[in-house]
Amino acid sequence: MAAVSGLSKMSGLSFTAVRQMARLKPLRMQQHRSFTVTAVPQQQHFDSSLDKPQFPGASAEFVDNLEFIQPNVISGIPIYRVMDRQGKILNPSEDPQLDKETVLNFYQKMTMLNTMDRILYESQRQGRISFYMTNYGEEGTHIGSAAALHSNDMVFGQYREAGVLMYRGFPLDMFMAQCYANVDDLGKGRQMPVHYGSKDHNFVTISSPLATQIPQAAGAAYAIKRENANRAVICYFGEGAASEGDAHAGFNFSATLECPIIFFCRNNGYAISTPTNEQYRGDGIAARGPGYGMQSIRVDGNDVFAVYNATKEARRRAVAENQPFLIEAMTYRIGHHSTSDDSSAYRSVDEVNYWDKQDHPISRLRHYMTARDWWGEDDERSWRKQSRKMVMEAFERAEKRLKPNPEFMFTDVYEEMPKNLSKQRESMWRHVQQYKEHYPLDLFDK
Ligand SMILES: Cc1ncc(C[n+]2csc(CCOP(=O)(O)OP(=O)(O)O)c2C)c(N)n1
Ligand SMILES: [Mg+2]
Fold first, then answer.
1. In which band, very low, low, confident or very high, does the pLDDT at 41 lie, cut at 50, 70 and 90?
2. Ligand 1 contact, 160 CB (< 6 A)
């Protein structure tokens, strides 16, 4: 108690705050893995009689030999998995023991995402929508993480996490409305396809500029902490986006302000055409966590149960202990980056085939279900047919709907429209009237 009281005087913190910190400390030390991570520097009591370092920014000893720290001090961070590639549980104590209904729901969401991707990708190829991005190969990262969250946890995504929103119950009709930019689109047709957002599902609207969601998510987590709201934030991003300055800002603010946030990195091997071996020289993204004083783990993203377990535990501890967690989910982007990309220009068909045929999150889960007699050929055939029908019907409904009124281009930013915007609006309508043969106004909502 005397030590705590001394620390309280020295740091200027209230007695209760210091006591809380003292209680949290042992919890934070629990999960040290085999590689060495030095504890967060604590300010030491200043005693000028000792020949010890007194620098406020580090807690360490002096040395008298010149030695640079090797960049591989943290390397080979292991990849946590629960199932092998044949869907066999490796260590029974890690089996999340989900019931049949839950596992079937995982499978149906993962395959539904796949079917929706196929139909929307094709519809872009046929010129029906302007753009699309598929999620092929990354279904396990979406469903495993989404299932481990509470429905009121806030999601900040990049653009390749449609499965998270699907798991939360965003209807197929709304996915289609967004991609078709029709009157039902919550964004009123103002965003590119796949830039979903839904207040009802606590899913913040996607932005195209990479990594902008990372500091925003840190800010939201800080607000949640201040409200003592018993909620967490999850922030998804690709390993490519992790090279942005915004990633650093978000990580460091979350660590220093001790925010309940899960940083979920989908390491899918590529940032468009740039492979990971040209993106970084360290051990991936997980290795960066200790540098920020963050708990970190690397998981097999193609193992939906590994993703589920890691996210669930990170979520629990993030909220209980108010601290950020970093999950690096190793996976593979099987599709092209987007409909504007042709990945055959920078990777081999054999490479893609390996992930598609031999290490796919959907087939791994199917093996698991088949081994338990929970799913057979007939179930597969009828679900394929039924899910395709559901997607096709939603797609046909979306295509028939009107487009939003063009007025919406100018609304919802300012309460009172500024002069420059109303001038632009008038000139837009003048232009449309003058060239009306080029603008099918009957397809737009009045
Ligand atoms: C600030 C910024 N720079 C560049 C781009 C162009 N861009 C869009 S996606 C992308 C690659 C991102 O890769 P990653 O974060 O690994 O996500 P993935 O596409 O692999 O899911 C790039 C460079 C952008 N949208 N924003
Ligand atoms: Mg990537």
1. low
2. yes
Residue nearest to atom 17 of ligand 1 (CA): 238
User: What is the mean pLDDT of the segment spanning 403-407?
Assistant: 96
Residue pair 264/329 in contact (Cβ under 8 Å)? The answer is: yes
Q: Which is the closest atom of ligand 1 to the Cα of 268?
A: 20
Nearest to 314 by CA among 237, 361, 260, 267: 260
Beta carbon of 238 within 6 Å of any ligand 1 atom? yes
Which of these, 331, 332, 330, 303, lies nearest to 90 by C-alpha position? Answer: 303
Please report the pLDDT score of residue 27 as a whole number.
38
The CATH 3.40.50.970 domain(s) of the chain lie at: 92-399
Tokens of 327: 């999950």
CATH fold for domain 92-399: Rossmann fold (3.40.50)
Residue with CA at minimum distance from ligand 1 atom 7:
210
Separation between Cα atoms, residue 25 and residue 313, nearest integer Å: 18
Question: What is the number of the ligand 1 atom nearest to the C-alpha of 159?
Answer: 21
Looking at every residue in the chain, the average pLDDT score rounds to: 91
Annotation marks residue 337 as catalytic:
yes
